[in-house]
Amino acid sequence: MTQRRAYRWPQPLAGQQERIWYGGDYNPDQWPEEVWDDDVRLMKKAGVNLVSVGIFSWAKIETSEGVYDFDWLDRIIDKLGEAGIAVDLASATASPPMWLTQAHPEVLWKDYRGDVCQPGARQHWRPTSPVFREYALKLCRAMAEHYKGNPYVVAWHVSNEYGCHNRFDYSEDAEHAFQQWCEERYGTIDAVNDAWGTAFWAQRMNDFSEIVPPRFIGDGNFMNPGKLLDFKRFSSDALKAFYIAERDTLAEITPDLPLTTNFMVSASGSVLDYDDWGDEVDFVSNDHYFHEGESHIDELFCSDALMDSLALGKPWYVMEHSTSAVQWKPLNARKRKGETVRDSIAHVAMGADAINFFQWRASAFGAESFHSALVPHAGEDTKLFRQVCELGAALKTLGDAGVQGTELEQSDTAILFSAESEWATRSETLPSMKLNHWHDVRDWYRAFLNAGTRADIVPLKYDWSAYKTVVLPTVIMLSAEDTQRLADFAAAGGRVVIGYATGLIDENFHTWLGGYPGAGDGLLREMLGIRGEEFNILGAEAEGEPSEIRLSSGAVTRLWQNDVNVDGERAQVLATYEGEEADEWELDGTAAITRNPYGSGETYFVGCDLNVADLTEFVRENIVEDSANVANPADSNVLHTVRKSADATFDFYLPRGKKEIALQGIEGEPIYLFQAEAEAQTGSYTVHRNGVLVVKRA
């Protein structure tokens, strides 16, 4: 890891006690000023103590080139501050104004076909445009100079959701920047040729000037996977460089204010390489929107587990989530009774010390007018706003008890996540186009919850050596260095669990040879005591063919099976493929799940895809039995997390399913009950669906 910036958290306004931050995006420029006083009144009623202001206000702040209007922004910041509401001030650079794009259309990004992204939405700018950077940094300097020393501004919100729309730019600026990035990464064009395997399909380049972004190459053609992977790396780095330029400009003028930008961890796992970006913020923040369906709360826990790792265990910031329905999905389901409060407290249970929403007041116009808000279209006399007030009171209760500043207790199992493996699994050149690293991470995470324990989600590139067990679900890309780290970990007594499509390619998207999984020139195979010959890929698309294969354990695999030989002298076969369908593909009796001792530790190979229920059985039988943080398996329908400081310990209990849970023998003082009640017997509680129990131990 690179040197990380020192952790700095937004501090309370003068005369206020430190609390959990509560609020959201506030867009006063969308409303007449006579609404502002009512906004402040309602914020105080709800217990809001912080709002983000100015995120999409560039056109309102810089009305024409070099002409700034801060008067309206000053007035609302003063109103907020005088009411005891702090401001997380945006750099306002997320979307350029029309006057800028009219004068400089060269700042507009291009798609892979070369079409220009026209203004009219947001993020219609090139991350590598020197012209756009010049204008954006001018705005940053103007904002910082004007608001330095402002007593009501407690943090900088730099831009917004980098890469949400302009992650990939194929313009001339991007081309030149990509060439430079490749030269800095590889040094010589020969090294680039080797990394990208340009001997295939006559793609060899003689000079860095011949490097072009992965633009449209014709329908039915396949992009060079190594080149495509590097372009994704470059795109993350280009946006990071732009963020750093904004950050450093603001920090130079206002060194006392912490800075962050909002990640999007739940958006397919990793839009950008947040493993890397975590080093560049003063505190980590994230936007999280719930997934409809029965795994809603499990997905939240999983995303937050990764956030806690990105924050290195320090409290982190929920920059955006929703009070109810959004407007940008095919299915925009609203939240059920209690879920607005429950989801928010769940974030706190997983280490968050700030709970913020998009947005404060539901818009009357624009593309997001039907996105839920703290104040809905129907106003304050609504079930939703009463929940918002209830949440504010809950967060105050937790803050008064001292939750803020405590840290989430670590598990003894780490599920390893790799942004680069997530990107790689989206390639169209793999044995199956249905691979999804982040999906498999979530499935394994749910399996541990089902088994009555909890795992952490830890980036592969971070230090996970202190864990007892590491699990690699579809970590398709493993370098020789990371493979050696795994071997050293197992040799020292650790447990390594390798998933079915793990360790197949190196960091350049070259296939490891000699049999599967070949990572580390065969070191991974040596650790596992197996050697794979082929992959067996199933799918409903093959009409009349088997779409699933049974295992001797009773599990079922439906996508991917490794055809392996057991080479290790001490390797144990825990399950084989069996039955008519297995025989159809010459897999009957072939090892599907194995265990192998390695050094003082052990390795497992789960050689096929399994659903959550079957993964749960594997975890119960092979991992949970000696886990230090295992709960009663009967309590697998409850999430229990612990936040601790030197002074206190807080236990959070939340039902995972639709049924109420009964808890007995709970130690500590109950400090918050939501849709829950204490029973007559000391330490006994009933927590209903979407409820929460928080107790404090000395």
Give the count of helical stretches.
18
The appropriate CATH architecture of the domain at 413-626 is 3-Layer(aba) Sandwich
- Structural class comes to alpha/beta
Strands across the major sheet, in which order?
7-6-5-2-1-11-10-9-8
CATH superfamily of the domain at 413-626: Class I glutamine amidotransferase (GATase) domain
Briefly, what CATH class of the domain at 413-626?
A: Alpha Beta
Low-confidence stretches: 630-634
The share of residues in helices is: 25-40%
For this structure, the CATH topology of the domain at 413-626 is Rossmann fold
State Rg.
26 Å
Q: How would you sum up the global shape?
A: globular
Largest β-sheet summary: 9 strands, parallel
Mean pLDDT: 96
By DSSP, the count of extended strands is: 28
**Amount of beta strand:** 15-25%
Q: What would you call the quaternary organization? A: single chain
The termini sit apart by 36 Å
In brief:
The protein has 698 residues and is α/β, with parallel strands linked by helices.
